[in-house]
Amino acid sequence: MTINSKQEQRKKEHLAIAERLYRQSAFERDQFAQVRLLHPVLPETNQAAVHPEQLLFNRPIAYPIYINAMTGGAADAMVINDKLAQLAAHFNLPMAVGSMSILKQQPELADTFTIVREQNPNGVIFANLGADHAPEFAQEMIDLIHADALQIHLNAAQEFAMPEGDQDFRWIDNLRALQSTVGQQTPLIAKEVGFGMSAASQAALFDLGFNYLDLSGISRTNFIAIEDHRRPTHLVSDYQDFGLTLIESLLARLSLRQTVQKQAALTFASGGIRTPWQAVKAFALGADLVGMSAYFLHLALHHPIEEMITIFQAWLDELNQLLPVFGCTSVADLRQIELIFSPNLISFADQIGLD
Ligand code: FNR
């Protein structure tokens, strides 16, 4: 396969630059250090009682851990999606494909996405598109990979930095149209791409009928920085502190729980997560599912599928074994853990009106 479009070239560069930025920044790691968990000295449960499996969109999944959106639409993407789909199938984990908008111009690249369904015929798979696509195209993309849900990425900050970015961010009418058509049959997940979501943003999405939000907070896979690497002339400013971290976005979600009661709502927590301990902290703060992109990209780029399985088995075992330490038998139980916040985080919580 040859690189024959700007979009394809962009996909290729995203993978390479994201991998270069893989190591977590101090800023990213520090967000998790700001939340301490109080463990009981008498947990009074055991490993045998732990049951991490649950239903998602009425389908069984083995763990509330998902492979988040990354790629499709280039030769390297094909290899990565193939491996990630095999991993998802092996563990029965949900998986999102990367943005499918490239298929509008280049439908011949469809196999870089359909490979995900071929390798994982029974798994839970999310399609992925930007907010400006017509319902008919969205439905086509869902049908193409028999997706169980559609992630709609909201990426104004990325478009701002992208050399060929679209600077028109008037999305609400189209989001309403998507909700009233595609959304009647297929769950729609409103997703950030690594800059988090404030309470006001989350409330606006709930108002538009979205029950499922992927908060995707600040990550080293910072899409302003990634696009800046691709610019002929670099941006003038440094945007490492643009947006909210996942932890801050989860606090914003909690602040909303006090006013917005959404029984069916699910919080997909991603952005900056690499380890089971970080995932446990996200669950303790109210995440329903935890997603990772950069972690899985790194795994797929450096290991054959057999090694990926061994390495991720150890990751899942560690998560599983952490639950009884906290007296928990399911991930949902982790919400009962008593938390201690750093002064910085208390100040943040105060400022967003979280009691
Ligand atoms: C992404 N991400 C992304 N998100 C999205 O909704 N559509 C997309 O096409 C892509 N593409 C993409 C490519 C690559 C190479 C990476 C690493 C990431 C964003 C991703 O889903 C996630 O929101 C952020 O990467 C933050 O999570 P991590 O990487 O810190 O786990």
UniProtKB/TrEMBL annotation:
FMN binds at residues 69-71, 99, 128, 191, 216, 221, 272-274, 293-294. It holds the Pfam family FMN_dh. InterPro entries: Aldolase_TIM, FMN-dep_DH, IPdP_isomerase. Substrate binds at residues 10-11, 158. SUPFAM superfamilies: FMN-linked oxidoreductases (SSF51395). Keywords: Cytoplasm, Flavoprotein, FMN, Isomerase, Isoprene biosynthesis, Magnesium, Metal-binding, NADP. It is an enzyme of class 5 (isomerase). Mg(2+) binds at residue 159. GO terms for cellular component: cytoplasm. Residues 256-336 form the FMN-dependent dehydrogenase domain. Belongs to the IPP isomerase type 2 family. PANTHER family: ISOPENTENYL-DIPHOSPHATE DELTA-ISOMERASE. This is Isopentenyl-diphosphate delta-isomerase. It comes from Lapidilactobacillus concavus DSM 17758. The gene is fni.
